[in-house]
Structure formats: structure tokens, C-alpha cells
Amino acid sequence: MTEGPSNRRPQAAAASTARLAAVTGDARPAQSRRREVVLVAVARTYAVALVGVEGHVVEVEADLALGLPGLTVTGLPDAALAEARDRVRAAVVNSGEAWPPRRITLALSPAWLPKKGSGFDVALAVAVLAAAGKVPLAALAGLVLLGELGLDGRVRPVRGVLPAVLTAVGSGFDRVVVPVDNLAEASLVPDVRATGVRTLRGLVALLRGEQPDEEPAGSTVAPEEPPSLDLIDVAGQVPGRTAVEVAAAGGHHLLLLGPPGSGKTMLAERLPGVLPPLTRAAALEVTAIHSVAGTLPAGQPLVTRAPFQDPHHTATVSSVIGGGSGIARPGAASLAHHGVLFLDEAPEFSTRVLDALRQPLESGRLTIRRVGGTAVYPARFTLALAANPCACAQSDNDCTCTPDSRRRYLARLSGPLLDRVDMHVIVPRITRAELLAENGVGELSARVAERVAMARQYAATRYAGTPWRTNGEVPGVELLRRWPLPRSATIQAEDALDAGLLTARGYGRVTRLAWTLSDLQGLPVPTAAEVNHALTFRLGRRRAAVAA
After folding, report:
1. pTM of the model
2. pLDDT of residue 376 exceeding 80
3. Which H or E run includes 529?
4. Which helix H or strand E contains 530, and what residues bound it?
5. In what order do the strands lie in the sheet with 254-257?
6. In sequence order, what are the residues at sequence separation of 6 or more whose Cβ sits closer than 8 angstroms to the Cβ of residue 392?
7. Which of 181, 253, 524, 527 has the most CB atoms less than 10 A away?
8. What are the beta bridge partners of residue 197?
9. Do residues 538 and 495 make contact, with C-beta atoms less than 8 angstroms apart?
10. Which tens digits make up the pLDDT trace of 301-328?
11. What is the pLDDT of residues 514-534, one digit of tens each?
């Protein structure tokens, strides 16, 4: 007997149901499945993507649909973020939650912005659970989620929490969830309620309004800072110690030129000890850079002292300026922001490294362009260079270098770079009388720091209402136009300019040094004595080269 069309429809529907059940594992009637499609939710959570120290709020959308179970992440994820599929699923299952047997799509918006790192894991996991109805959507309003997930559900610390939280607050969010190890760092930002979590299980319980089954996050006690090196340890070298004081007071770049063992490195290492503590705004800037680089000391969420960076002379351009695959990471120049970048044996550094410093010396920032994006890092540091007079680095009696070889050795420091260095100071060899006469009776760094702080206050008062706070930051043309010096004070500097001993940039730097010298003495305007003293600091290397 032949079956009619009416008899074939139920069989076809049953066959279709069987095929769909084989794919999805769901053998319920199609009518029930159609009702469930209406109930599928789209949930949204928020995270932050960092490009350098600049953050962008990222909206994470989770869509659960019928189909072959799987997880797709869209929105320009990098390799670490693409691998989040496996981490998130394992963390959810090992936290006691059921993984939705659906086709899951996670979209990170804006889609044009590259996303890098594992700090999106928590936002991805919570978005999936919210779309599955396991977390109330109302609990996610105004909330930013940061953190990496372990396979067992632990929430691991991530880099860049401070700039990420600052971005969240600037975008109108008032609550953030961070790994418990990053809580102290996130709490530095005012006007935000930061919560530290140890596990995904505990976070889900908090979002549900339940009591989490874990110990509450405690405050971390910052370790005591080690005592800084003191200028009293430097024997003799009165001109060198004066140069360090002037460099600290005005933010001036410094070249120390002298034989081995004369104290160049000791002087440079003690420069941060006479700098004033960082202001709150400067401390947040410095901490944000170190947070992105992952160099914040354990238990010390806020950098309050001027940083000191001293890369080895074999350092590459990427390690000093910044670089890496994708978005460039900060280098030593940015890590020294509001502090000191010290290059010992400066002529031994690569020419590419030295010339790359010219941009931050002028602008106070570094712009690094890569295929993955452009990163801009602040880099307003005081550059301290130390150099021997020749390559053999022997005493005067043992040195066999010719005058030409000495000139070639120092010529590795290019003219454009040295023209941006305010002070060129000759550091002579220590005599026996100087070494024995000092014996710990020199001047303490604390007393020098008091004069430095006073001089900086005079400069800040003078530059109130401008973007500058120290003499070293003011462009030479602005200083000459808005704060001109009397002609009687600049006669020798003008003669040096006419004789070719100074460039126009060098003349401007002499005037900046003169203002710092007058601030250290409490004078309202530099006199001829301060300008001539500044000219001596500026021409020290050139005079030594002529003598050689």
C-alpha cells in the first residue's frame, strides 16, 4: 500500500528530529526547541584593552545559539586571547558550573581595536554564564572585569591594572573586579569600588548575592624601601657633586667624563637620592608604566620615589626604547619616567640606541609604531651619561691611545645627542689627599635634597599656568621670549655662540642652566655669574677635547 503525503510528513519530521538530535544531543520536539530559541540570551560584560598606557573599554558580548557546540571569539584577538576558549571552559567546569552545550559566540567590541593578553578571561567567562542564566544581568551593570583564569578556576594577576582601572573610571564605570593580587594597585584610583577575587567560583557567588566560600581579600603591607645611596660616600669631586645637584634641581641632562675610578658611576647612582618624592599625579603615571611592563615590586603598588634605570651597554634598542611583537612594551627610557636613565660607559652603547634617545630628550615621550598598533609612552627622564676619555680605560701613565683615537672614541656619542645634554662635566682622578681628607665628612644627600626641593618650588611658581614645572622642560625659545635675561648677563654666552662653541640649542640650554643656578641661590633673575657658570658646565667636554 502506497503511503500518502499526510503519512510521510510525520515520518519526515521524526527523521529531521533524529538528525538534529544526533548533531546537538537534544531529542526534544521541534516545538519545544523553537520555544527555547526565544529564551536564548545575549549577555554583556566589560573589560579594558591597553595600547601602551592608553586604555579602551571593550564590550564583551556572549551569544548562545542552537547548533554544533563550540566557542568562537571575534574582535581581533591575539594568540593569548584566542587560547582563552580552552582556559575559560575548563575554569567554568572546574568551578562547579555547567558549560552550556550551545554554539557560543563571543564578540569583543570595538572590533577594529587589537586585543592582547589574557586579562579578558574573567569577562569572557562571566559573559557566558550570564547568557546561560547562571549570573543575573543586573549584577553586571557598571562593572568592569579584569583577570586571567587558571584551568582550576583561580583568578591570576595581570599587567596594566592601574591604567585599566583609570580608563574604566574615566568611561563612567564605578565598580571593578580584579585579581586579589592586583587589588592594592586598583585601590589607588579614587571614585571606584574595587573588589579582589581569588577564584571564579567566589566571583560567581558574589554576583549572585551569595557568600563566597573563600577568605576575604586582605590588605598587602608594602615592604620598607631600602636606604638610597648617599652623596656623603663620594670623596672629593666638588664640581661633580655640584653638577648632580644642578641636574636634580632643574631636570638637566648630564655627561660625566673622566678616567676609571674617579667616581662617575657613584655620582650618577646618587642622583635619584636628591630628587624630591614624586607627586601623586607623577606617581600614578610612573606606576602605570611599571604596571604595563610587569615590573611593580611585590607588595608595593605605588611608586613614590624617582625611578632609576641603568641598562647594560649591550642592551638593544627594544630594551631601552621599547618594543616587542604586536603592541610595543615600554623600555628602560619609559620606565625611567620622572626619574634617571643612566648609561654607564656610554660610548660602548649601540649608535642606534643612543640616537633613538633624541626623540624623548626633546618631547618627553616615545612613539613606537608596530604592525599591531602605535604605542605612546611618557619618557620625561633625566639622562646621565658616563664615559672614559679613551677606549683602553687605563691611567694616564699607562694609556697609549693617541689623540686621534681618543677623539674617535668619544665621537661615538654623536653631536646631535650631545647637543641635547645640558652639562658636560669633567670628573678628574681622585688624589690621595682628597680621599683621606673626606673620610665621611662630606655633605649628606638629605641636605642637598632640601636645596633641590626649594629650587624646584621657585621654578614651579615661575611656570604656574604653563605645562612646565622644571627649567629642563621649558623650550629654549619660550624661555628667551617669556623670561629674557638682561644683556649684561649673557655677553660671554653670546660670544661663545658667535665663535661656534655653542649652537642655538646649546645657548638655550645655557640659559636654562643659569635659571636653575639662580633658583638654588634664591635669586629672582640670573646674573652674569650664573650664566658664566652655566657656560662652564656646557663647554667642559669641548675644552677637554681641545686640551687633548
Report:
1. 0.85
2. yes
3. helix 528-538
4. helix 528-538
5. 308-309, 340-343, 382-387, 254-257, 423-426
6. 398, 399, 400, 401
7. 253
8. 179
9. no
10. 899 999 999 999 999 999 999 987 767 8
11. 999 999 999 999 999 999 999
Q: Give residue 141's identity as a one-letter amino acid code.
A: A
| Contact (Cβ atoms closer than 8 angstroms) between residue 381 and residue 260 | no
Half-sphere exposure of 330 (CA within 13 A, CB side): 31
Q: Indicate the DSSP class of residue 139.
A: G
Long-range contacts of 41-45 (CB under 8 A, 24+ apart): 41/130, 41/131, 41/132, 41/133, 41/137, 42/131, 43/127, 43/128, 43/130, 43/131, 43/135, 43/137, 43/140, 44/127, 44/130, 44/140, 45/123, 45/124, 45/126, 45/127, 45/130, 45/140, 45/143, 45/145
Q: How far apart are CA 291 and CA 293, in angstroms?
A: 5
* Percentage of residues of the chain with pLDDT beyond 70: 86
Helical axes 403-410 vs 540-547, angle rounded to 10°: 160
CB-based contact 169:187 (threshold 8 Å): no
The 8-class DSSP code of residue 329 comes to E
For residue 72, list its beta bridge partners. 105
* Statement: residue 544 has pLDDT above 60: no
Phi, psi of 71 (to 5 degrees): -135, 125
Task: Choose among 324, 323, 345, 326: nearest CA to 334.
Answer: 323
Cell numbers at 19, concatenated: 538528525
Cβ–Cβ < 8 Å for 203, 154: no
Tell me if residue 217 falls in helix, strand or coil: coil
Q: Which three cell numbers stand for residue 10?
A: 510525520
Q: Is the pLDDT of residue 299 over 90?
A: no
